[in-house]
């Protein structure tokens, strides 16, 4: 998931801090998600997917 997320962030010029705000999590937690240390909840995944206009399946593939 973190590779796809990084790709979407680069394409949309989104910072980790901005994405954390959108997802409703701390910047530190978003950092853990990006590094693969933590797995986001379904609700957080949904907010991220909606923000980027992709399905949750696309996000985690």
TrEMBL record:
<dbReference type="Pfam" id="PF01381">
    <property type="entry name" value="HTH_3"/>
</dbReference>
<feature type="domain" description="HTH cro/C1-type">
    <location>
        <begin position="5"/>
        <end position="59"/>
    </location>
</feature>
<dbReference type="InterPro" id="IPR001387">
    <property type="entry name" value="Cro/C1-type_HTH"/>
</dbReference>
<dbReference type="GO" id="GO:0003677">
    <property type="term" value="F:DNA binding"/>
</dbReference>
<keyword id="KW-0238">DNA-binding</keyword>
<protein>
    <submittedName>
        <fullName>Helix-turn-helix transcriptional regulator</fullName>
    </submittedName>
</protein>
<dbReference type="InterPro" id="IPR010982">
    <property type="entry name" value="Lambda_DNA-bd_dom_sf"/>
</dbReference>
């Amino acid at each position: 998931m973190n590779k796809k997320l990084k790709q979407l962030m680069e394409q949309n010029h989104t910072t980790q801090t901005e994405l954390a705000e959108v997802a409703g999590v701390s910047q530190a937690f978003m950092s853990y998600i990006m590094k693969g240390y933590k797995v986001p909840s379904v609700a957080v995944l949904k907010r991220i997917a909606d923000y980027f206009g992709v399905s949750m399946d696309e996000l985690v593939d």
